[in-house]
């Protein structure tokens, strides 16, 4: 996980250097919080914060000496954060290096790295107005290309949004792209966006993306100009990565499916089908409708009162018919059919 300050930060780090930041973030993850701005992290004998980095993780293709040299180059590379001071109420742009020292443990495949104490709040705090980016460490480390790595974290940070707009000028500045990329949208698409889309979509990531170029016509007689990139994150939800709201929906679906006399061994299977096909909300709303009718003592058009058994049969019919429309194999939901119709 990393803070949005880093996801949207201005920096130019190589693949290995970005992997080093990922490993720093991984070891600081337990200190990340929405409330605290400081944390008691590991410090060395000189009182400076440090982490231990496995050089094989930092680069599976390069040797330890190469990794050390890449980390050394980080001394001269800064990262810029945009943030708002909680007391002053002012917008601030801060620039500083992340790494401050390297300690080579000779004969071992790891190194100790000191990082900037002052930057700790921006590495671990994702409180109000900041936000956090959750991503898969292995995918982040193994993706090739420094721009692809950054775009991967970007779309992970907005996985629960319909889209995210990034002004091209700001995008090129944050990613430290050459002017030719900003001035030629074809180069930007071919060298950065299409490459990232292809490589991320080829991984096992639960977040992939599409995009479109935003254009504006600055003068009625002139050609429309590309001014922004609209990213469309696609999040494949699973039981393991649901946000709090969807966890509540999943739990409610589990209770509803249980009430519908689905065998215990099939409940999770049906709930996962509802999750994967975007049906959790409609199932919960339909069940609420029947519960309200039953509690109010309402009657159907035929004059028959609403009962729990009627609600159960109607729910099972609705679920199987909607899943069939979505192309789900009936054999995967045989427990929803009346006996003899599986």
Helix percent reads: 40-55%
Low-confidence stretches: 126-130
**Portion in strands:** 15-25%
Average pLDDT confidence is 84
3D structure, described in words:
The strands form four sheets. Strands 2-6-5 form a three-stranded antiparallel beta sheet. The protein has 14 helices and ten strands. The chain has 342 residues and is an alpha+beta fold. The radius of gyration is 26 Å and the shape is elongated.
Summarize the structure.
By secondary structure, the protein is an alpha+beta fold. It has helices at 4-7, 15-28, 55-58, 64-73, 120-124, 137-142, 146-157, 168-174, 179-183, 185-201, 244-259, 267-276, 280-296, 308-325; strands spanning 2-3, 50-54, 78-84, 91-97, 99-104, 110-115, 132-133, 164-167, 207-216, 225-235. It contains 14 helices and 10 strands.
